[in-house]
Amino acid sequence: MKQLKETARKIKSMEIRGAGRIARAAARELLEYSQRISGDDIDDFNKKMTFAAEMLIGTRPTAVSLPNAIRAVMRYKGGTIDEARKDIKKLAEGFITGSENAVKRIGEIGARRIRDGDTIMTHCNSSAAISIMAEAHAQGKDISVIATESRPRLQGLLTISQLDNLGIKTSLIVDSAVRYFMKEVDLVVMGADAVTVNGSIINKIVTSQLALAAHESRKNVIIAAETYKFSPRTLLGELVKIEERDSSEVLGNEKLSRLPYVRVRNPAFDVTTREFIDLICTEVGAIPPEMAYIIIREFLGWGIEELNSKQGFY
Ligand code: RUB
Predict the structure, then answer these.
(1) Alpha carbon 71 to its chain's center
(2) What is d(CA 231, CA 197) in angstroms, rounded to the nearest whole number?
């Protein structure tokens, strides 16, 4: 329980962050938790697994990769605890390896869209988006990157240090400079926390402004997103919840307490509609956003019947 709570805390506080990493951490935690459950009553074991799954799902509401990963593991079967543990291990390890391979494959597919000499703009810190840039660079293409700071948590600093380690020339800009620099950009590459059935993508706040500025300048926007970032529940008409984080991330609590009439709003993500997205690069291919439904149906294995049955974890 202590380790389960600690993993949940790390995801909530963003010590573990980025939609892919969150998903892999949750799958790993469920696997390890299943090994630690004591007793020999399978019903009790299942109840404890459900409790753990719910605790992890509650940590961050926007990254759909999290419930998708948890659901992939919670599909386990087994009449005994031993069988259940074995199945959980297989499913969790399968998810983690599949996820790591997906990020690599997205790099290979996405790099084909990058030409020698391109300047790429990116936002926040996305492993899938960086995989594309890293692969293009590894292929010998001379690329440079303009990376946003990504207020308020400054994930852009992670991006510039990862790109720097790879030897990729990078400029850091404040978020509000995205339109100013758009004229120097050849294409935009960003990640996603969620993709909806109608092909909208949800990613770090500012993504939609950046995509709008790119659209205005006729620059292509490529979204790097593994298939488990697609949201099955949007098939039922649900909207992806946008996480609003603590105001202290924007302005320290101390400053705020001196301004009693001020309220700070801190949405962590925003929605970019499909008309501003050229391509979603997944591990099963580069698709137009209009094809999101096919991914949910064919590759995530979700049917409307199963969703309606309200079984499992969403
Ligand atoms: C991270 C973020 C990333 C996506 C995709 O937000 O918006 O672009 O999660 O990342 P936060 P990846 O820092 O709030 O988690 O491609 O690594 O899954």
Answers:
(1) 16
(2) 7
For ligand 1, whether the C-beta of 189 sits within 6 Å is no
pTM of the model: 0.95
Is 124 among the catalytic positions? Answer: yes
| Ligand 1 neighbour 204 (Cβ under 6 A) | yes
Residue with CA nearest ligand 1 atom 15: 18
| Nearest residue by C-alpha to atom 1 in ligand 1 | 18
What pLDDT digit, counting tens, does each position of 159-199 carry? 999 999 999 999 999 999 999 999 999 999 999 999 999 99
Q: Report all structural domains of the chain as residue ranges with CATH numbers, in order of start.
A: 2-102 (1.20.120.420), 106-309 (3.40.50.10470)
Give the tokens for residue 307.
């969703």
Phi and psi (nearest 5°) for 50?
-65, -40
Per-residue pLDDT tens over the stretch 251-279: 988 888 888 899 999 999 999 999 999 99
Q: Is the CB of 60 under 6 A from ligand 1?
A: no
> Ligand 1 centroid to 40 CA: how many Å?
39
Annotated catalytic residue 270: no
Please, what is the Cα angle at 163 between 158 and 165, to 5 degrees?
95
